[in-house]
Write a structure and sequence with these properties.
Length: 117
Protein backbone atom coordinates (compact mmCIF):
# COMPACT_ATOMS: atom_id res chain seq x y z
CA UNK A 1 0.00 0.00 0.00
CA UNK A 2 2.84 2.38 0.72
CA UNK A 3 4.11 1.88 -2.83
CA UNK A 4 0.60 2.50 -4.20
CA UNK A 5 0.24 5.64 -2.08
CA UNK A 6 3.43 7.13 -3.59
CA UNK A 7 1.62 7.43 -6.93
CA UNK A 8 -0.85 9.93 -5.43
CA UNK A 9 -1.37 13.02 -7.59
CA UNK A 10 0.88 12.05 -10.51
CA UNK A 11 -0.18 12.49 -14.15
CA UNK A 12 -1.22 9.47 -16.21
CA UNK A 13 -1.15 8.50 -19.89
CA UNK A 14 -2.91 5.13 -20.06
CA UNK A 15 -5.97 3.55 -18.48
CA UNK A 16 -3.72 1.21 -16.46
CA UNK A 17 -1.83 4.23 -15.08
CA UNK A 18 -5.12 5.99 -14.27
CA UNK A 19 -6.37 2.95 -12.33
CA UNK A 20 -3.03 2.67 -10.50
CA UNK A 21 -3.29 6.34 -9.49
CA UNK A 22 -6.82 5.81 -8.18
CA UNK A 23 -5.56 2.82 -6.16
CA UNK A 24 -2.70 5.00 -4.93
CA UNK A 25 -5.09 7.72 -3.76
CA UNK A 26 -7.17 5.11 -1.95
CA UNK A 27 -4.08 3.55 -0.35
CA UNK A 28 -2.95 6.98 0.87
CA UNK A 29 -6.35 7.60 2.50
CA UNK A 30 -6.31 4.13 4.09
CA UNK A 31 -2.83 4.69 5.51
CA UNK A 32 -3.85 8.14 6.80
CA UNK A 33 -6.91 6.66 8.52
CA UNK A 34 -5.08 4.05 10.58
CA UNK A 35 -4.46 4.83 14.20
CA UNK A 36 -1.49 3.80 16.29
CA UNK A 37 -3.84 1.50 18.22
CA UNK A 38 -3.92 -2.20 17.45
CA UNK A 39 -6.66 -4.75 17.94
CA UNK A 40 -6.32 -8.07 19.79
CA UNK A 41 -4.76 -9.70 16.71
CA UNK A 42 -2.11 -7.00 16.41
CA UNK A 43 -3.66 -5.28 13.37
CA UNK A 44 -3.80 -1.51 13.15
CA UNK A 45 -7.28 -0.05 13.48
CA UNK A 46 -8.51 2.18 10.66
CA UNK A 47 -11.45 4.52 10.98
CA UNK A 48 -13.34 4.38 7.68
CA UNK A 49 -16.65 5.92 6.73
CA UNK A 50 -19.64 3.94 5.51
CA UNK A 51 -21.14 7.12 4.12
CA UNK A 52 -21.14 7.04 0.30
CA UNK A 53 -19.34 9.73 -1.70
CA UNK A 54 -16.61 10.35 0.86
CA UNK A 55 -12.88 9.74 0.43
CA UNK A 56 -12.87 7.30 3.33
CA UNK A 57 -15.77 5.34 1.87
CA UNK A 58 -13.99 5.23 -1.50
CA UNK A 59 -11.25 3.22 0.24
CA UNK A 60 -13.71 0.32 0.46
CA UNK A 61 -13.05 -0.36 -3.24
CA UNK A 62 -9.36 -0.87 -2.42
CA UNK A 63 -10.27 -3.06 0.55
CA UNK A 64 -12.41 -5.20 -1.79
CA UNK A 65 -9.52 -5.51 -4.25
CA UNK A 66 -7.14 -6.51 -1.46
CA UNK A 67 -9.59 -9.18 -0.29
CA UNK A 68 -10.08 -10.51 -3.83
CA UNK A 69 -6.33 -10.64 -4.45
CA UNK A 70 -5.65 -12.47 -1.19
CA UNK A 71 -3.78 -9.48 0.27
CA UNK A 72 -6.17 -8.95 3.19
CA UNK A 73 -7.81 -11.24 5.69
CA UNK A 74 -11.18 -11.01 7.37
CA UNK A 75 -11.29 -11.33 11.15
CA UNK A 76 -14.84 -11.77 12.34
CA UNK A 77 -16.13 -10.19 15.54
CA UNK A 78 -12.79 -10.00 17.34
CA UNK A 79 -11.70 -13.51 16.37
CA UNK A 80 -7.98 -14.09 16.05
CA UNK A 81 -8.62 -16.74 13.38
CA UNK A 82 -9.10 -15.38 9.83
CA UNK A 83 -12.12 -16.50 7.83
CA UNK A 84 -10.95 -19.35 5.60
CA UNK A 85 -13.53 -18.55 2.89
CA UNK A 86 -15.81 -15.70 1.95
CA UNK A 87 -18.43 -15.35 -0.76
CA UNK A 88 -18.37 -12.55 -3.30
CA UNK A 89 -21.61 -11.84 -5.14
CA UNK A 90 -22.23 -9.46 -8.03
CA UNK A 91 -25.76 -8.03 -7.99
CA UNK A 92 -27.65 -6.12 -10.67
CA UNK A 93 -31.01 -4.44 -10.89
CA UNK A 94 -32.45 -2.00 -13.40
CA UNK A 95 -30.60 1.05 -12.12
CA UNK A 96 -27.35 -0.17 -10.57
CA UNK A 97 -24.97 -2.98 -9.76
CA UNK A 98 -23.00 -3.77 -6.65
CA UNK A 99 -20.59 -6.32 -5.27
CA UNK A 100 -21.13 -7.80 -1.82
CA UNK A 101 -18.60 -9.59 0.35
CA UNK A 102 -20.24 -12.07 2.69
CA UNK A 103 -19.42 -14.73 5.25
CA UNK A 104 -20.02 -18.30 4.05
CA UNK A 105 -22.67 -18.83 6.72
CA UNK A 106 -24.43 -15.57 5.81
CA UNK A 107 -24.03 -11.93 6.67
CA UNK A 108 -22.62 -9.21 4.48
CA UNK A 109 -19.56 -7.36 5.78
CA UNK A 110 -18.81 -5.13 2.77
CA UNK A 111 -20.71 -3.86 -0.25
CA UNK A 112 -19.58 -1.49 -3.01
CA UNK A 113 -21.40 -0.04 -6.02
CA UNK A 114 -20.02 -1.29 -9.32
CA UNK A 115 -22.16 0.67 -11.76
CA UNK A 116 -25.05 3.15 -11.95
CA UNK A 117 -27.18 4.10 -14.96
Amino acid sequence: MIELSRRHGQPYHTEAERLALIAGDRAAVLLESKSSDRDASGCFIASLSREPNTRRFDVMYLVGQLIENGQAVILRDGSLQPESKIVIHDHNDLMSGWRSYEYVDGGKFLSVTTWIT
